[in-house]
């Protein structure tokens, strides 16, 4: 007969066996900037494990936050995602941050970003360990 | 904001040929160029143009739209195919230097324009552009119409390009401008 403690142990083992996220990030880039002290960074996050969420970011060059551009009847709006919310990184799937949608907004730049520059971006997840990547600055004409 | 509302509705539906009762966009304006000199809309005459309203503190949708116009212009033909005009809806922060730096980023001719608050308000009205400041302090953002308006060489309104419109239909419209 199983004692309650053994049952609890068995249950916790079952919970742990749900696969954890396996995150990789690539193609991180940002557009060259002019006089404004902000920039948008884009990245593709791949997940070969269980579901996770991107909940924040830190940049070496300024204050980073997750933003979303949305279009409502031809009118563009850009807002931070709601506090306490994250962007889903589905199990065995990917999350793409790209032009005109969700992006990492970086504010308070000390100088313009020039094509060919690099900076560090740390992606923060609900479950997976923080992931540091190198962002390449591309010419403004990049798509 | 009547013009803004009209453009709004129009860009929701597949683009229809303008019907006689419909408001047409455009009209003469005088703004300020990147050198601080007056820029009259008559300078655009003789060649088609694509006009887009945005602001230089917009790091995502605005540069993406300008980059796309530059790319589409290359696909349609040469840099002479049509002019690309960028007008700020943020004259408070965007002076001649700021719009000039922004327009120069794209590695191809883009005309960057600013103006007084009154000049910008007038041109927005003429072109059916909605914009609204959101937030306070230095870090405010601006909700604004992100639709590109296309004019032929006689400065007659021809069509719009919505931000989420496929390249093929946009190219077809741009080719018709010539
Ligand atoms: Cu943003």
Automatic annotation (TrEMBL), chain A:
InterPro entries named in the record: LpqE-like, Lxx211020-like, PCuAC_sf
A Pfam entry, by short name: PCuAC
PROSITE patterns assigned: PROKAR_LIPOPROTEIN
Family matches, as SUPFAM superfamilies: DR1885-like metal-binding protein
Full protein name: Copper chaperone PCu(A)C
Organism: Sphingomonas alba
């Amino acid at each position: 007969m199983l004692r309650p403690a053994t049952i609890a142990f068995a249950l916790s083992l079952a919970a742990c066996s749900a696969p954890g996220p396996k995150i990789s990030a690539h193609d991180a880039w940002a557009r060259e900037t002019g006089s404004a002290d902000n920039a948008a960074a884009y990245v593709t996050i791949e997940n070969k494990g269980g579901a996770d969420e991107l909940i924040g970011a830190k940049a070496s060059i300024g204050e980073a936050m997750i933003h979303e551009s949305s279009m409502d009847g031809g009118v563009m709006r850009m807002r931070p995602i709601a506090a306490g919310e994250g962007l889903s990184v589905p199990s065995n799937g990917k999350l793409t941050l790209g032009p005109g949608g969700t992006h990492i907004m970086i504010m308070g730049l000390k100088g313009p970003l020039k094509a060919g520059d690099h900076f560090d971006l740390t992606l923060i997840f609900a479950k997976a360990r923080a992931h540091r990547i190198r962002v390449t600055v591309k010419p403004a004409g990049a798509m | 904001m009547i013009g803004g509302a009209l453009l709004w509705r129009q860009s929701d539906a597949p683009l229809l040929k303008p019907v006689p009762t419909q408001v047409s966009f455009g009209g003469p304006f005088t703004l300020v160029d990147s050198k601080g000199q007056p820029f009259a809309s008559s300078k655009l005459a003789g060649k088609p143009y694509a006009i887009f309203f945005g602001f230089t503190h917009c790091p995502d949708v605005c540069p993406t739209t300008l980059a796309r116009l530059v790319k589409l212009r290359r696909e349609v033909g040469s840099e002479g195919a049509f002019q690309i005009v960028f007008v700020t809806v943020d004259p408070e922060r965007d002076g001649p230097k700021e719009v000039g730096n922004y327009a120069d980023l794209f590695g191809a001719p883009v005309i960057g324009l600013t103006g007084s608050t009154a000049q910008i308000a007038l041109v927005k009205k003429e072109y059916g552009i909605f914009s609204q400041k959101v937030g306070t302090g230095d870090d405010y953002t601006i909700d604004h119409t992100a639709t590109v308006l296309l004019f032929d060489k006689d400065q007659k309104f021809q069509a719009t390009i919505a931000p989420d419109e496929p390249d093929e239909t946009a190219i077809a419209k741009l080719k018709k401008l010539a």
